[in-house]
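User: I'm curious what two different proteins look like when written out as structure tokens. Can you demonstrate?

Assistant: Sure. I'll show them one after the other, since each token string lines up with its own sequence. Here's the first protein:
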Amino acid sequence: MPKENQLNYFGDTESPTLFRQSIKKIQQLETSIVEIDFEPFLEAAKLLYEGPWVAERYLATQPLLEASPESLLPVIRTIVEKGKDFSALDAFSFQYRLQSFKQQADKILSSVDMIITPTAGSTYTIEEVINDPIQLNSNMGYYTNFMNLLDCAAVAIPAGFYNNGVGFGVTLFHSAFSDKRLLSLASEIQNALALPLGDESSKTASQIAINRNMLSKLPAKNIHVVVCGAHLKGLPLNWQLLERGATLVEKTFSSPDYKLYALAGGPPFRPGMMRVETNGESIEVEVWSIPSENFGTFVAEIPPPLGIGKVQLIDHRWESGFICEAHGIVGAKDITKLKSWKKYMSEKTIPIK
């Protein structure tokens, strides 16, 4: 969540209490809530209406603005007409500023599962908005105006009620394509808050929601991959992991149920690890963590007879990892006794052609 001094309720006295109550309830879900610097997001939000992007809106409505400006609501015309005053220099300057804010925001987002804010810091009557539409709409967009500019995904959920019966909500957001994860988190939080839902006011969210056991499991942001050969750190294919943002989690061994073979062909030379009932050994492996959105392209580059299956490690846990189909060991060399592909490669003499 944003630092306390970066939260803005625009003079509303109820919103701070409602937000704190929401945070307290969410903390009961075994979550860890930390404060982050919200400034890059706030600075990016200012660019939405203060920056040259409004010039695109002017371009889209230019024929109407020039032929019949009275056709637009005065407040819309006031905002859009500013677009004609920006130059190409402004466009590039603001783009560079936005990229700087995005780099800062991405670094913050990479350190958390989601960011939570009020959806709006305050509420206003229709009359209040009519009298001061630009400022009050800007206030209501304080926590959301940066979303598109920074390429974020977000979901807003009800979290409480003002004394006058108007709903108060919180917004969960993260980087683009985190939709499924955010929706899963939102479902958990909404069930925990147990608020009445619209015309189902006689029932709570928990009563009318799908059974919690049927809710989709929280999708992992990263997937662990066990490698035993050319993808090991320092070996020829390790770059396929590195270019996808993978990081080394640990060096360990498989359970003592595997044979290791040097497969025919190459370069690059590859091993095949196969689970067996007897005469197996613990094979030296590495566990890498790869962003889930990059896992598919990584798997797509794996040639037969290799593939991804489940590999048991020395501590008995199972992880996704490289396995070899049975037909692949035809003509392969059994190197199980070495228990290590790196050791085999260091002893292997490769003839120079």
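Here's a second, unrelated protein for contrast:
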Amino acid sequence: MSTTEHERGREELVRAVAARLVELRRKAGLTQQGVAEAMGRERSGRWLVAGLERGAVAGASLSSLVEYLRAVRVGFGNLVDVLDRYTSLPIPESVLKFAEAAPVPRLQAGSQALECVQRRAAALPEKRELRSRTPRQEPDIETERVRRRAGYWVLRKVFEHFLHSELTALGVPPSVWLRRRMAAYGRKVFNALFRTRGPKEPKRPERLSRLREWAQRQNLTAEIVRYMEFVVGLVFEDMREHDELDWLPPPAEAYAIMSVKPKHRVVTDAQMCLTEWWKANDRYARAAQEAYERAHKAATDLLPTAGLDARTLLRYKLAAMWATNVGANTVPGTSRRKQSVAGFHAADRPPELDRKLLGRVLAAALEVWDSARPNLPPAPGPRPR
């Protein structure tokens, strides 16, 4: 087998792995964006997923491939047949020649090393019984340690969703500093309760006392501190009653969780707020764009289509766009609407433009906008940081 054929085999392996990833994603019923969200990379993960499915697996890290397989809920066993086909290929001739050219080490007759080996062989019994050795416990201990750590991150994921729903129900805006500090204090309290359960519970009051000092430095009031400790305590006790605190994920899933960076193991309240803001912003932008197009069409339908030169028709269209922007950026009955309408009528325009026609164009655009505004979804507000 030549080196060129070996490279061709590697390219076929990359294509086969990429095709298998696409097949696994489709079986899971997910889009590329869905896989990216399951990986905890809503914004940048789609480019990573698209690159893996396009054949960039050769340069991808093992952790990226593990994240992808975990997102589609499969293991490495689904890639075994593809990898076996590649490992069954013959070795390139250049590598074989190099291996065959290496001399085989041999013991010279009459050497002291050969005599020593022969004496040892003669001293051994013809048939030796294999001694059963107790398997080492270190790998099992390490696996249990990884499972315990991964179980904590699974609980943190559940707790983050509760924290997000609780802060949203309280009506704390996502963009203010108070929400970020309340969420941080709630995480610290949950971590303190989790780390001091069982025989370490006597240390809990001291740890919570230090957390209250931290909250005081962050300008959190005593009422907020007591409330967060109360609700977090309720969630913690509910997990304890349902035996969720000592739950351990399977070894494969635990190693997959711990292979991801800590900042990507859970979706925090801030990330969930940002995701909800982007969805609300997209809904509002699509609805506003549809209303804008309807208002602009209503304004341009009143313009004459014949008997005008190109320059005059362009000026009419610019006036129609101006009228549409007045309806999009102002609210009926406000001083800003009155000023914008007055500015539209008082604008210096060429004498060939019909003022009455422009008034009807403005009225048509405003009518469409005023009728569509109550049906628009609420504006998303300031973007969370």
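A detail about the second structure: The chain has a mean pLDDT of 81.
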